[in-house]
Amino acid sequence: MVQIKLPDGSIKEFPDGIRPRDVAAGIGKRLADAAVAAVADGTIVDLDRPLENGTTDAVEMRILTPRDREALDVLRHSTAHIMARAIMRLFPGVRLAFGPTTANGFYYDVEVDGRSLSESDFAAIEDEMAKIVKDAEPFERFSLPVEDARQFVADLGQDLKVEHIDGELHKYGILSFYRQGEFVDLCRGPHIPNAGKVGAFKLLSIAGAYWKGRTDRKMLQRVYGTAFFDKKELDAYLAQVEEARRRDHRKIGKELGLFTISPLVGKGLILWMPKGATVRGLLETFMKAELLKRGYQPVYTPHIGKIDLYQCSGHYPKYRDAQFPPLKMLTDDAAKELLDGLHAGTVDEAAQRTLLARAGIPERLPEKPLDGESPRAYSKSFFEMTDGEKIAYLEANCDYEEYLLKPMNCPHHIQIYAAEPRSYRDLPLRLAEFGTVYRYEQSGELSGLTRVRGFTQDDAHLFCTHDQVKDEFKSTMELTQFVLSSLGLGDYKIRLSKHDPSDPKFQGVDGDIWRRAEDEIAAVLDEMKLPYFVGTGEAAFYGPKVDFIVRDCLGREWQLGTVQLDYVLPERFKLEYIGQDNHLHRPVMIHRAPFGSLERFFGILIEHFAGAFPLWLAPEQVRVLPISDKVADYAGDVLHRLLAAGFRATLDHRPEKINAKIRYAQLEKIPVMLVVGAKEAEQEAVAYRDRTAGDLGAMPLAQAIARIQREVEERTMPQVAPLAAAAEAEEKAEGHEY
């Protein structure tokens, strides 16, 4: 018998092999009809999976229905199978790779004989998928021993699946498959009971994808789609996708002249144009002012460092594949001059002799003996070699230092801490820097500002005693909360990112240190009464952290601010301070970056605000719009007053009608437009027009300036309107009373 504990706490006894479907039916017909899958002891399983329990503990089980978020993932994974089945029906000879779910849908990587799929094929694929959904055939699970499974997929002509079994799955004794009609796929599941559960689906895009993500493997085609239980949900999602397309920071960034990427500079390397640089500068000033209030000290560090630094920290070679190749630098100036001269062909034999002697490099070296041989004869003289041989000789026998483009700021800040003796009286020491770092992202992963190869972090590292950890961690949490709320990103959830004990990437002094750090973070979150969820395996390699998962105005989630607790790097670098007991102690490090990457944060802000930044952050805050040249002098005076008050303001003196000028200003997302005509010039007034609220009527210039000043000082954050509504407002601007 097996005992099953239900969500209401009740425990019921069933025969071994009972299926979740039968348990649901026993509870009620409505639940059985709505059931999609089940969760048994934390694992999602099919409704037809037999339940057994070899222990005396009850199996904790709950039935998943369309109301549960986990059920949507099951539905989408099943729809990926339905899509693959439809593609195979339409295009014989398809080889399947992987078909997982994503945050908003699913994809399947496929290889099609003799052709490339395109979006023009989507209609036919969707029609075939609709037939499969209508037939509502069941998903049937079966298992085979690994050798039989390999032969089975080989007989199906699924070479990629064979390779996957040989490379990664051969260690498992049994492999599972799912059959739906004529379609069979190697898959661990789970799946919905039958295809008829799919309420609505849509294919979204297609892209290239390397087999197993490796650039030295064959290129496959990745077909993306999404699915929902209800068509209304699909329609809402597609509307959101369209809105996101309109808000794409790459499109808006180009239209508003915020940033650019030049092929001559390089992929993933951002050039901040004046307007974008203005916003970035404002963000930096805002953060620096707040840090000074909180006791942080500014530092600057170089853009490169010796590879030894990152080997000590563990960033190299752990993340070698994600870093730019090392820069090799000769340690001897004479050797460098000689090598450069040989490459350029500008150094004669006499100069070569002089430089070779200055570098301390012998003219000839004994050849290395083979194993078991006596030392062999000397090689030929340097001056008997060709220039190419000389270059190779020097490269083999000169001393080099290796440098990396800085992948992280923390090892540099650690060296600032270690530069002088520290006492407990010096702690906490809070070092802050807007430090630029470099990561070599794959070309296919680059995306505007949100995935780049060079980015600036609002980085800070706090060095403190063990007794100070909780207070310092709490203060960094409060800082991150303040920053996000000040920028209209106060809708977030918090993840406590822990290590995975089975994953060797997580370094530590020992397991107890990791557990201690995780417990301390949890205690701070509990004390602050902040709800959080746990992400196992999401920690940094040197310590656990808190991640702020921010939801933007479209409901999309982004990981932004992070606060990390680190006992590992102080140990690796042997950092010390003298305690009250006059003995040496190891400090604790806290890493924190509320913005994270300025580039990525800016890209998210562009999309969140659809380029319409709040007044205090806008690159151009006010535009003066004269109705005609007759009031040009007064319009100039208004501009002068605005500039004198410290606002970023311009004057539109083009010979256009006022409605056109207003429309241009709306399209350029200018927060405030001050319209001036003869009446306003007479009364030393302006007609105040707000980008969102529209025409607010005439008011004295001094009152308008005071209003703008107040909004800037208070960092007023207007409600973020959908872009479609903003576009409608821009159209209405044509009807201004002037």
TrEMBL record:
InterPro entries: aa-tRNA-synt_IIb, aa-tRNA-synth_II, aa-tRNA-synth_II/BPL/LPL, Anticodon-bd, Anticodon-bd_dom_sf, Beta-grasp_dom_sf, TGS, TGS-like. PROSITE patterns: AA_TRNA_LIGASE_II, TGS. The keyword Lyase does not apply. SMART domains: tRNA_SAD. GO terms for biological process: threonyl-tRNA aminoacylation. The keyword Iron-sulfur does not apply. SUPFAM superfamilies: Class II aaRS ABD-related, Class II aaRS and biotin synthetases, TGS-like, ThrRS/AlaRS common domain. Pfam families: HGTP_anticodon, TGS, tRNA-synt_2b, tRNA_SAD. Its main location: cytoplasm. Zn(2+) binds at C410, H461, H591. Its EC number is 6.1.1.3. Keywords: Aminoacyl-tRNA synthetase, ATP-binding, Cytoplasm, Ligase, Metal-binding, Nucleotide-binding, Protein biosynthesis, RNA-binding, tRNA-binding, Zinc. GO terms for cellular component: cytoplasm. NCBIfam families: thrS (TIGR00418). Belongs to the class-II aminoacyl-tRNA synthetase family. Homodimer. This is Threonine--tRNA ligase. It comes from Aquisphaera giovannonii.
